Amino acid sequence: MPLIELDTLDDPRLACYRDLPSQKLDRDPVHMIIEGKFNVQRLFETHWLIDSVVVERKHQHLVPQHVIEKTDVLSLPTQVISNIVGYAFHAGLLACTRKPDNADLDALIKRDGDRATLLLCPNVSNTENMGSLIRIAAGFGVTALVTGQQACDPFSRRSVRVSMGTVFSLPIVRSDDLVLLMRQLTKQYHMQHIAAVLSDQALPLSQIKRNTPVSLVLGSEAHGIDEHTLKEVQQHTMIPMSLNTDSLNVSVAGAVCLYHLTQLC
To answer: The domain containing residue 60 runs over which residues?
Structure first.
């Protein structure tokens, strides 16, 4: 189909892009918004189903022909896009696509065997931290990221933006009962759950060893890891620090811990 040039705000195909800062689409169980030239171009390289693309008229050349042939590509002047999305738009590209189904966790763990490394996020609620963790997990070759019911949506607009396109390659599972899942993983795969937490039981990260599949459990910065989740954990670990620093940003702590755990594989 040909590229579609629009100059007005009332086209129904623009509905999903309206007022993006309100985050209303983040609550949509089906659709997600991708923004920014880099992220959208990474989307173009996948096999994900794309519902539509919005492009600034001066950047029409950024949309490859195979995308134009398969989906609605809506070309608008910059000011019109800004009026729709609710902020001064300068990112070149937007896309609306479908949130993926949960990854097949059993198949992934069987594929990686004792090298399987999961990142469990029961209640990480900050979307930018979630996006950073997705990028970090992808970079260190983590088997999958698993979120709990109290965690933010890993496919929210800001999370996807911060992930720098790695959300399209990292397997992600949204669990309705993370505690039950942890029990099942321990029983079925002898998975060792390791919590990054300040406690009297916590071993320095350098002392953590592994010879089975492992998961790293990270809590929210405000509330940590809840007691029900901690009961399923076999080991506590901490990152020794100086100058009275008691903690790190959750994504930074996740990066340090995941580097150590993946180097032990």
So the answer is: 4-98
